[in-house]
Amino acid sequence: MFAGQSAMAADDTYRLGVMDKVRIRIAEWQPTDGTIRNWDALSGDYSIGPDGGVALPFIGELKAAGKTPAEIGTEIGKQLQQQFALRNLPSASVEVAQFRPVYLAGDVHTPGEYPFSPNLTVLKAVSLAGGLRRSESGQRFARDFINAKGDMAVYDSQRARLIARHARLLAENNGNADIKMPKELERVPNADELIRSETALMKQRRDRYELQLKALADLKSLLQSEVESLKRKTDTQTRQLELAQEDRDKVSRLSEQGLALSTRLLDIEKRTAELQSTLLDIDTNSLRAKQQITQAQQDEVNLRNDWQAQRAKDLQDTEAEMEKLNLQISTSQQLVAEALAQSAEALKFDPSGKSATIHYSIVRDEGQGSKEIEANEATLVRPGDVVKVSSQLLMQ
């Protein structure tokens, strides 16, 4: 398929018309050597002229308007076989490369000729022409109406999200596991999705908070075990120091009486000093572990306080945003009311308005002359159609 094609082009019932552009490819099977010969001199893009014909080399003018692409392909193959006295019928593929344009007329912003595209509806065609035509006096109010309606749609979506967030923060502050559906969201289409999203966020935040608390508790438990272990070491080292000091006193008395060597006394003094140094190291490590326990306790207190403070701040900020959004919604509602009161043309853009009548019709030539058919915004437009738009305001 080429870019300009659609399901209409692929269907053999589609009839070509003036200004259609077709893409022709021709190939011939050579049974003698089992190859395919491409007719590059004839292959290419061709436009259907004002007389409904397409001019091809060697063949000349070939009537194309009103025929299907398949019929044109068959005719080209026959003409080539007859022209060159070929044994086998060449295969000609004809596809629509570009459709003839469509035309917009009547109460549209910019009437005129526009290129056809696949699945083109009346509404899409009108949008190509800039939409419905508006008078200069009503343009500003119609524009204000459109902007205000668009802003209100955005504000309503934001308000629903803020209400869901507010419900989540209340549940977090109260320690609830689930979020209660607010009454303001009961008629909102995606309310369940919003609550599920906020519930998942609440669970994630609470899990992270509890994980941090558990990490601090595990750290305190580990440090407490270290303190107890150091205390046992202190008791053991203290007992050994007492024994060493007793031994030192005995050797010292014997040394004074000349009954013990001075070297033995020196060894005992050295042993005593080592035990005292070890006791100092143990006491230092014990003090450090106790200090870390105190710091972990303080971190736990800070974490709990920060959790509560952040929830309170988030709740306050959310309520402030909701108040600001309510003011914006009120302003937009006033703009909508003013636009509707000042310009009846603004009602054209109001989906619920019943004060404007817009009529669509299509003028189509199917080979037996042009005829006008009724249409609506969803009616499919065909190449070459003229879309007529007329509007009538019913003043109340």
From TrEMBL:
Polysaccharide export protein N-terminal domain ranges (all copies): 10-96
Keyword Protein biosynthesis part of the UniProt annotation: no
Domain AprE-like long alpha-helical hairpin: from-to ranges: 150-333
Identification of the protein by name: Polysaccharide biosynthesis/export family protein
Organism domain of life: Bacteria
Organism: Rhizobium oryzicola
Species lineage: Bacteria, Pseudomonadati, Pseudomonadota, Alphaproteobacteria, Hyphomicrobiales
InterPro entries noted in UniProt: HH_AprE-like, Poly_export, Poly_export_N
This protein's UniProt keywords: Coiled coil, Signal
A Pfam family this chain is assigned to: HH_AprE
Residue stretches in coiled coil: 206-247, 315-342
